[in-house]
Automatic annotation (TrEMBL):
Family: Belongs to the multi antimicrobial extrusion (MATE) (TC 2.A.66.1) family.
TM regions (residue ranges): 68-87, 117-138, 150-169, 181-203, 215-236, 257-280, 300-319, 331-355, 375-397, 404-428, 434-455
Gene Ontology terms: biological process: xenobiotic detoxification by transmembrane export across the plasma membrane
Cellular localization per UniProt: Membrane
Protein's UniProt name: Protein DETOXIFICATION
Annotated keywords: Membrane, Transmembrane, Transmembrane helix
InterPro entries cross-referenced by the UniProt entry: MATE_euk, MATE_fam
Major localisation: membrane
GO-annotated molecular function: antiporter activity; xenobiotic transmembrane transporter activity
Gene that produces this protein: LOC111490270
Keyword S-adenosyl-L-methionine: no
Amino acid sequence: MDAAPLLGDGYGGDYAPARTYKEFKQIVWSETVKTWLISGPVIFQIVCQYGTNSVTNIFAGQLGELELSGISIAISVIATFAFGFMFGMGSATETLCGQAFGAGQIHMLGVYMQRSWVIMLVCALLITPVYVFATPILKLLGQQDDVAELAGSFSVLILPQLFSFVVAFPTQKFLQAQSKVWALAWIGFGALMVHVLMLWLFIFQLGWGTTGAGLALNISGWGIAIAQVIYVFGWCSDAWRGFSWLAFKDLWGFVQLSFSSAIMFCLEIWYMSSIVVLAGHLPNAVISVDSLSICMNLNGWENIIFIGVNVAMSVRVSNELGKGRPRAAMYSVYVTIAESLILGLLFMVLIFFVKDHFAVIFTSSVAVQKYVAKLAYLLGITMVLNSVQPVISGVAIGAGWQALVAYINLACYYIFGLPLGIVLGYVAKFGVKGLWGGMIAGIAMQTLLLLLVLYKTNWNKEVEETSGRMQKWTGQDIQRDNRAES
């Protein structure tokens, strides 16, 4: 039995309004457990995924400075661009699978996954020229010729990894919608262990150099994709009913939702990445970029936690809306935002306490350490904002608001935040602090607007729209069926 009181208002199994402290505490505890049971394994999976690229860079560093630079650029620029776009395209599957699972239309999950495979394959083919022409692209972006040439050849070498995303990402969303996240976590952990072994074997024992590193990335990528598919075929018989021609039906509507998701996701990734590029054109660029990179590294580790919360929020909201439980979706959102904000504040306080010391882990340069200490206050504020923003993005994916959030991101990040950062950094001569301060202003505006959207949200109407979406894709009135069951 659910720990929180239930309401018989036509929505089966929904929460009742919390009128006493005891009821409020029950709801908070219930939602906390549900959220972290999903986000915990997802965080572990992302750490393993992040570790795969990190370990590759570590092994590449043993080959030489040129090899390290070339492989790092190929992974951080070319592969990350492709990863971000493909991952975003998969978010449509996350929305529809989560809502269909909540609505009890479990058989549709397999159809949505196959439909996403078709669309993602086309996207991979469209992105392929970026890998093939990586060398001239990198030279155009200002990379040294020798680094750009090595990075370009390595990008072509890891092209098969791109096509592993076609299979892996929709399958991942398919499993997450059903909260089967531990399977993904263990597959990711196994892939990381095998990846390390392959790097050691290919680079040190067989002497294959950068070719060995690329081969290891391809095998790891396809190993994860194949392992996930095997799990789906073998242990998800309710949601996987075999291949279907329905995968080719209503592709355009699916493409629209997928593209909105990709734009929303990519605008967020590129925004924080652009500050490092801009810092490279400031006076004393080496210290500026090194200091900023250290701060972004720590911010990236915090982001791993909140990406896990983002996924959990998407699953919770989409499932509850699919089930016709508006109040459960609303409480889940508010509880998770409050807890994430508390975590963000704790990270900020921790950064403030160790601001004079944490840079020692990354560099022995006293000048860089002092500059990092000056940037620590901006890092702390960023961590607070980045604790709330991913939660709201997860709500957007779960509710299908990707297009709205993409417009908000475009306005706040690229029309307001980025120009303000350039003015403060270059015109007002505040340097990195100005660049970062302007970008923080953009994130703050985006967060406030999204909080306003949440405040104005009519969750009963969201249930109706979810029912309409499911009726469009499945031909059944899900809201009517949910009410009939209650």
